[in-house]
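Page header: ASSEMBLY MODEL / two components / 732 residues total.
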Amino acid sequence: MRRLGHVRAPVAAVLAILAVGGTVTRAAELDEVVRRGALVWAADQEGGGPHVFPDPEQPTRLTGFEVELADLVAAELGVTARFQQGQWDRLPLLLGRSADCVINGFELTPERRRDYGCSRPYFAYALQFVGRRGAAPATLADLAAPGPRGAWRVGVLTGSAAEQVLRARSDLQVEVIGYDGTVDSLEQLRGGVLDGVVMDDCIFTFYADRFADLRAVDRPFAGGSYTVLTAAATPRLAAAIDAALGRLIADGRLEALYDRWDLAGRQQMLLLRDAAEIPAATRRDTWDLVRDTAPLLLKSAGMTVLLSCAAFPLAIAIGLAVAIGRLHGPAWLGPVLATYVEVLRGTPLMLQLYAIFFLLPKVGLALPAIVAAVAGLALNYSAYESEIYRAGLRAVPAGQLEAAMSLGLTKWQALRHVLVPQAVRLVMPPVTSDFIALFKDTSVCSAITVIELTKRYSVLALSTGRIVELAVATALLYLAMSWPLAILSRWFERRLERPAGARP
Amino acid sequence: MIAVESLVKTRGGVRVLDEVSLAGAAGGVTALVGASGSGKTTLLRCLNGLETFEAGSLAVAGHRLVAGPHPPATLEVLRRDVGMVFQQFNLFPHLSVVDNVTLGPRVVLRETVSVARGRALDLLDRVGLADFATARPATLSGGQQQRVAIARALAMRPRVMLFDEPTSALDPAMTAEVLDVIVDLARSGQTMVVVTHDHGFARRAATWVVELAAGRVARQGPPPDVLG
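Prediction written out in full:
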């Protein structure tokens, strides 16, 4: 939505709120699932093994113990299982919309018991701290004091129990960094960006061969169980899935499945328990919600402003240089810069951020996430800005360059004093519009662990269950930032309309 | 001051300048006349390097240009001594009138702002626009804009001034006010080359008239000899 005019942004925000608010009612109950003949289960294949992942032998096929579990549960309901992909921390938002249930290592927590239907546990996990071989910390006890680089940098899967447990441990000197995929954090640990990763032990066991230079630090230090999530509005579906799990446990089919996946060494005794053993959390009242979330939302809004205000001037400077190079530089430079523009315009921003954040450390250039985010946004937008400035420079009449050069100005002096100032004025409206587009595009940076406003909203909405209230608050925050921005740029536009040298 | 020898310029296979030589135009005011498309403007633009040519050579204010692409350094030095006034004025719209006039002296001659501004105000006074120093070019009439353009070129203290049909975009009243400035400049001894359709003006101000026809010099000489 990068070309969305700033006038339409508030409208889009309101529509987004309505869309989120309107989802609660349309959940498919058990009879509809049966009539349809398919149980749609959601998971994130990026979350990785051993849960759900593309078969290395045949990448178009999904495999993992939860794929098999979904097949078993669906068969118990007399239907077939149908997979729905989603980003892991937002999978519960699909419930009642494009998915009937979520089966993807979702830990049974009081918050989830409050907000969703939760089946009896189907798996017991333990949280394992993973470090590099031969590197600090040697033991978990070391985390109580700062490491050689200050607070220990520890990666977790965003929204996972590992994140929750770690953030609650105020006794540890750790900076918790959320990732969207499990393999990403292990790569960053290997590259030296992180000091450790906390994840479910079965995941680390699964990837241990691939990451032979990483090691488990001490024994797992916390644990819990996975549950199948359903929408709160589908209690009969939830009960049917829970009963199906009960039968799979009782007749040993689940145990056989875990044997096949080499997961049976776990204390799977928990499976005999009931979801109700974990009490549901109580809903906080609105005042508590505001008190608990406002500082976090404001801080994340600050990150959004920081990213935009750091990236956009850079994008303009690079874009202008590229435009001048293409129009007035030496002949060999033209194709080089044209390629630069097409590559950056023709590939997704998300991919560019990934390349900068996850691939550069492989060649020895590990950038902090914020630097990588600013660099990625600046490079991506520089391609668009260069095209705008190229058009702006070409729109200045040819007689202007001739008049300047006739006065004895060199080409660069003519550009500096005559062409660029006029081009800048000509392209103010599209450039302003791009600034607001970039402002909103900062949300993509959450993919490389930068927590800005949209990501913060999504995390808070899921942990508190107050999706609509927080959506309104978040939209208002965006508006409160983009509206003054639009006013400021209109003022700037008017200021530029006046001759630069006009003095009383 | 100005010598042109056997200049040849082709455009799309057509010789727009065909062995053009100017001998008698040593100084004073040279008027280039002739029908549209006869090559007057092209010849003028060759004189300050806005156009290149394929054969021949020329010398202006002691600077020599030869056939082929001109080195930028040669042109920058030449253009300090050769001012140009365009048919469409080409004022810089983002700068005030006085800043249009001071841009060259400040950037090229490295004059201080106060020195350049003082001289600019004198020049604006000379062309009758002292009251418009802080105005935007777009708020001026065509005649006023062209007079600012003349002041802008004069601010570089050029040894030769080139005028490319300076009044053909103007109505008669504005034409008169611009021609008065040019005639006044001619009387003060400024060497200049003026492309014009206005034979009356040529008779009044020129010391030498060159008539071009189809890219060749048809006639040249003192005004009464050429214009009759």
